[in-house]
Amino acid sequence: MAPARHDKDELRRRFAEEARAERPDLALLCLLVAAEADPALDANGMDAAQIELDRLAGLLPYGLRDGRAWASALAELLGERYGFEGASADYQRLESSLLHEVLRRRRGLPILLSVVWIEVARRAGAPVYGVALPGHFVVGFGDPAERVLADPFAGGRPLTDQDAELLVAGATGEPLEASMLVPAQPLETVLRILNNIRAWAAARPERNDVALWAVELSLLLPSHPARLRYERAQLLVRGGEFLRGAAEMEEYAQVVADIDPAAAEAVRGSARAARAMLN
């Protein structure tokens, strides 16, 4: 059964409010994303996920002092003891992008497994941060200049500079750059998770509904690519909402007209085509 409309509105209000908080709660934002996908995930379920993160954090040893000690302790707890890791098949499952399911299954995409690591480590007082390498999210500990990196997808395998270079080369064919190692902010991480969900849905035309809510949540983030507005309009048209989609295309065309007149005219053409579908 689908959630009531006002429930969804409330979830989105909370998502937008948290995204604009001075210190956005990464775990809460991920759970609000998950609630869009899973109507069964209610407030109690979200609380249970937060409690599980607290519980795991409480199992870490006391007195760890440097990044390498933290990375080793997390690998031993989450990778070895609890078996959090990923496999190629996880890329085919929407659950791999939903935090409560990743906590339950102990499987997920690199970025969601990294969220588990970050949130468990943060609760235990670790100096931890996400690292948004192209194509493969990992975690870092201590001073970012020290480059103490671990790969939660591989159970917490330590990453040398050469390992990171190979990951980037495999994903993009490009060399590793220092800018790729800058700590990822929570909202950047959430946008990347939503991008992954959009990519999953794009490969499954029958899941236009998933693509639409992923775009709509992305648009609630304070900073997002303007082109997402056009993508939302296209999804509305694809879902049969021709007039709403056409109107949003025209609004987007106005936004880009001064920057790229040719693109604006192409978007207007798409709007005309959408309206013609009603005839």
From TrEMBL:
This is Transglutaminase-like domain-containing protein. Residues 52-195 form the Protein SirB1 N-terminal domain. InterPro entries: SirB1_N. Belongs to the UPF0162 family. It comes from the Bacteria. Pfam families: TPR_9 (PF13371), Transglut_core2 (PF13369).
